[in-house]
Amino acid sequence: MDVTTVLAADAPAPASSDPRLIIAALIGIAVVVVLITWVKMHPFIALTVGAIGLGLGAGLPAADVATSFSGGFGDTMASVGLLIGLGAMFGKLLADSGGADQIVDTIVGRARPAALPWLMALVGAIIGLPMFFEIGVVLLIPVIILVARRSGLPLFRIAIPTLAGLSVMHGLVPPHPGPLVAVSALNANLGLTLALGLLVAIPTVIIAGPLFSRFAARWVDVPIPNLFHTDEDTSGGRGGHDGGTPDARGESGDGAAEPGRGSASAAEPGRRTAGTAGSDVEDAADASSGTDDYRGRGTTAVAAARKRPSFGVTLACILLPVVLMLAKAIADVVAPDAENTLKDAIDFVGTPLIALTIAVLVGIVGLGLGAGMDRGAIASTLGDSLPPIAGILLIVGAGGGLKQVLIDTGLAQIIADTVEGSALPVLLLAWIVAVLIRVATGSATVATVTASGILAPVAADLSSGEVSLMVLAIGAGSLFLSHVNDAGFWLIKEYLGTTVGQTLKTWTVMECLISVCGLVGVLLLDLVI
């Protein structure tokens, strides 16, 4: 409660009049969309131009606009960028060692294709429980892509259920950090909130995940991205149309160097496009032998000559950061004020940056050395994982910069003043407040913290059950309408190789479904509590 109250008190005052601020925000976001979709400008430049123009139009001093954007960019890189880099290293190591193939072969081999969307929704929910959404994405993207490629199912039949599981946990179920903030701010009962959250989360995941994925796959049919690509994949499933033309999507795209593009590139070692006899880029296997004997052979072709890490070892490596972060979340709930060596150690290893660093180090041993890769091959794999994500990092960082400019203009304060004294039902009001802040700032966490602070006085007069439902209403509202000012929007777009329009029709619609289904679940539970 104290932290949220301080955040609310320190919220920046509006930089100008309400109409000017709202118009500037609408125009700024519209400029970003037009520059990307019509001018075909790279999203990083478009986001930068839109953010600066928005800040100036809203009345912020020019120096403050630059400081705000740079601060948002830096904060996003510190919180998300490092995790993306570590996740990319882990994902490439998982792919080159054959560990991802082992996981995919096991999943696909033991499950009917019709069951895969449901299974991936469960996997996404489990992975998403203890961690921020972005971390779950970078851990699961290799599995999403390879399961889609090997199973022959459309990409979004696999991606949407997995992302739905991740996102629902992000907004609705403690001990995820987002709901925990609201639980603390509103003084809700954690156990009751967890139980009610699961009741709302299960049908929400089903509707927004496996069921909606049927429509998403029809609306947007894109090639499987060539991240974690191997020669074996080009001969089976939908992976057969990954390669070929310079732009597998048949359009000029949104900018340079997007993952999932069909062109051969030195930034994606080990790839081969359709109709190419061999590649002039050494893959990790070449480094392993120290010669060019394997030039032109795909990673899997060489991996087949050596052993794969076992399914158990691979699964343990994937779940290691999950377990570490979950342990920290549980410790924070069970003994939040404990001061001892064990609690300090759990807090340290459970920090996302440390947990993923440990996962990479353990993966080097369990996946790399376990698959027979030598030091040269492992070094090559880790180095080769970074160039393809350079564009992603810049775009995600610029999205964070735009978000910070929106916050510093004082838009959240305008929303708080607008809803003060509203006669709407309290749970619907909580959802609407979170929705407005989410749409304006692009951050689910900011929406949760700010909405909780605004509504904390209201929660003091509610029953324990209604307070827990308010936590869930705020969490559901914090997921609504992810669009161009959300770093997660660009993360999904770039990883899956979709256009802005395609991302809006899939990811954004999925987030809206989750938010609305969550609200409906909360209102239904309110009738019986």
Characterize the structure shown:
With 529 residues, the protein is mainly α. Helix content is 70%, strand content 0%. The chain contains 24 helices and no strands. Helix 10 packs parallel to helix 22 and helix 20 packs antiparallel against helix 21. The longest helix is centred in the first third of the chain and has 35 residues. The protein is globular. The two termini are 25 Å apart.
Structural class: mainly alpha
Oligomer: single chain
SSE arrangement, N to C: HHHHHHHHHHHHHHHHHHHHHHHH
E-strand count: 0
Major sheet attributes: none
Annotation field: number of helices: 24
Name the average pLDDT: 78
Task: Give the uncertain stretches in residue-range form.
Answer: 1-9, 234-304
Strand content: under 5%
Cα(first) to Cα(last) distance is 25 Å
Radius of gyration: 23 Å
Q: What helical percentage do the residues reach?
A: 55-70%
Overall spatial form: globular
Summarize the structure.
With 529 residues, the chain is an all-alpha fold.
Question: What are the salient characteristics of this protein?
Answer:
529 residues, mainly alpha, 24 helices
What's the helix and strand layout?
Blueprint: H1 2-9, H2 18-37, H3 43-58, H4 62-96, H5 99-110, H6 116-128, H7 133-151, H8 155-172, H9 177-186, H10 190-219, H11 231-234, H12 284-289, H13 299-303, H14 311-334, H15 341-349, H16 352-368, H17 375-384, H18 390-408, H19 411-419, H20 426-441, H21 444-459, H22 464-477, H23 487-496, H24 500-528
Helix pairs in contact: 1-21, 2-3, 3-4, 3-18, 4-7, 4-16, 4-17, 4-18, 5-7, 6-7, 6-8, 6-10, 7-8, 7-23, 8-10, 8-22, 8-24, 9-21, 9-22, 10-22, 10-24, 14-15, 14-16, 18-23, 19-20, 20-21, 20-22, 21-22, 22-24
